[in-house]
Records
---
Amino acid sequence: MTQTEDRLRVVAAVPLDEELCRLIERIEPRVEMISDPSLVPPMRWPADWEGDPSFSRTPQQQADFEAMVDSADALFGIPDVSPAQLARTVAANPRLRWVMTTAAGGGGQVKAAGLDQDALDRIVFTTSAGVHAGPLAEFAVFGVMAGAKGLPRLRADQDARVWPQRWEMRQVDEMTVLVVGLGGIGAECARRFHALGATVWGTTRSGRPVDGVSRLIAPDEIAQVAGEVDAIVVTLPGTEQTHHLIGEEVLEAVRPGAILASVGRGTVIDERALLAALDDGRIGFAAMDVFEKEPLAQDSPLWSHPSVLVSPHTAARSSKEAERIARRFAESAGRLLDGEPLRATVDTVEFY
């Protein structure tokens, strides 16, 4: 896309309210939004991009859907949130120049499409990374607070109608919190923990300073500092480089009773190593919104572990999510048309 092109034909390849299509056009008048609600599955709840799984297309509807997405300069969402459909569309549509995934971790979907280098060079892929930062940071704060205030103990005493002797709770403003990953989510976590008075450390590969973070840690130094922190907040995407980064080495090095909150991708944490750390008290409490495999298996010990809070990957869910993503899309469309770099581009080497 060059600066001389003043229009962008965008197809909504996932369910998107007509109101939000028009919002995108109002924010960026050079965009023409194309959508057909009859060709995409209806949402079951806000920002349900996959839509109702019982939805199916007739052969003619499938042909119409493919013709629609194949006419696009840019796509709002991956068609059917399916890597296979993305691969088909890329091959069929040489005019396609930009795809914005509705998932913050959309790089994994792009990788799964198995696109060749020519396609990766031709098309800019961006994600909604950062849109979910506020809600996920709130869950991270909630998780650390729940551990600091002894939520499992409070719940057990309440269920048993026991009024115990008073006991000391931990104070967040006396804690050191290590945020693993200082991207959009991590930076928002850091900001909120700093506002609560915590000392905040964070991992970074770039070494760039982040507001509220007093110490920057290289990713390969996490085990070396794990024994110096009171809580670890994991915000990283799931890549080959981050797989089981929080594993046996780190979890053996933590300060006994450390709190863990996970809001990135579940594959970053080795759940077997985590269970061992929970069982012997190295991890005193874990608030988990994401897991290695989802839904969490019925026989997973995490369900019933007294020191674990299980959240079904729902911490980012918000009635405002779709609007936030639509606004991000409109802003990015303007940047694309003006020849400016886009935010949250997918690294097509590591796919995050």
---
Amino acid sequence: MTGEYKILYQGGTGEIVEKKSRFIATTKPVKSEEEALAFIEEMRKKYWDATHNCSAFVIGRDNKIQRCSDDGEPGQTAGKPMLDVLLGEGIHDACVVVTRYFGGTLLGTGGLVRAYSKAAQEGLLASRVVTKKPAKEIQITTDYNGVGKIQYIAGQMDIKALDSQYTEQVVFSFLVPLEMAESFISKVTEGTNGRSQIEEKSCVYYGISEKELILFPESLEI
């Protein structure tokens, strides 16, 4: 599978107040159940005096691992609504802990579901979510006559240049979205009259967040 999917890239903290009860949502990227459980324990220690520390996490691009905990709240009123928020947003590799300080007024089951859901959403709003997209690194070697045409094609297709080296020849390295790779190669070949040497390198995942290009370390198989 090589489609795009969303991950929690950077955690954050959000807070809401419902009838004087404080709900503090903290999120963190996690790659394994062990990482998620360690984070949950970390939050328990940080908020040791809280009434509840409820949690939910999803791991894997197919959500192979899904867990949630009500931590003493009535069944299905905390962890499950938080898990539903993660799944509803389509976010993977994420853990959220919602800490509650009881304010003295009971919220009822419906009120708890709404509060924990809203808190989880606030936590995500304070986080950085990145869409991981598949791409191919394509290296093009050309003479100086082909430089302008290649740059024009890349600009028209909004393809990012990772590197360029100018010596006797010019070597470009482009990050090309997987679905555009064939078209890009075809246009460069035509635009330079077949005089460019084109080499397809590794396939990777990338993302863009706050105008920052992010390359993820794992490669993908095509």
---
Amino acid sequence: MSTDMYGITDQQWLTTQRAVLTDEFAAQTARLTELTADTGDPADVDTHAGLLAVTRANIEQLTGALRRIAEGSYGRCARCDGAIPPERLEILPHARFCVPCQSKHEG
């Protein structure tokens, strides 16, 4: 098991990432609950539908990241199987691709 310059082990880092993802999952699930219960202004139907779609997509991404942690594949690129830098995962914890593969995937 390796440590970084701050003395954090890979397992500690992964535990922290799991906690961040779990907290965000709970927040997004609560938001989805609020949105589905909202009986707001009928004029805001498009905005409401957009918020529902984004929230559901966020939950799907978070679920996938938590699944990859459980499977042991978190932090590995889904395309090239290379390591996704921890800095990228700290910014985008649900990232499935390294930056070069993400560029190819979008392009």
---
Amino acid sequence: MKLQIDDSTLVRNYLAGDENALAALINRHNQRLTSFIYSKVFDKEITEDIFQDTFIKVIRTLKLGKYNEEGKFLPWVMRIAHNLVMDHFRKNNKMPRFEGSPEYNIFSALKDDQLNAEKQLIKEQIETDVSALIAELPPEQQEVIRLRMYQDMSFKEISENTGVSINTALGRMRYALINLRKLIEQHQIVLTN
């Protein structure tokens, strides 16, 4: 019985000059990665392109010494593929730009329960982007957004939990949304509705 070499050993062997180690990694994860990409784009040619781009990026990162070995090679490669899929959708205008209208509720994009694979991927990216933006807000604005949007509390409950008046809680939410709109425009974040 032949013992299978783990991913981290193959990565080390590749970095030491063994090109076969990279071939072994690609062969090992080919099916899983191809299926993952195809489940998002539903096109064989695009899947092959993104698969190749993924490994070009993997090779570049490895050669630059920027890969941080934590025994998590496959999740790292999947994340690269995920980002390239998102880039593909953005390039092909599948994700409309946020226009910054006051009526637009950025959280409405997070509430769609019936999502296909493409929309699920976009939703995950929006959640990541929105979380990063919320982290840039002042702490009291972060708190009111988390309580209202993620814990579904009423402003009365927020007021009771935070020890501020309802008007203060409402004001913090208003400023948080204004600041989020500014951050979205500043960072040129792509959102979909």
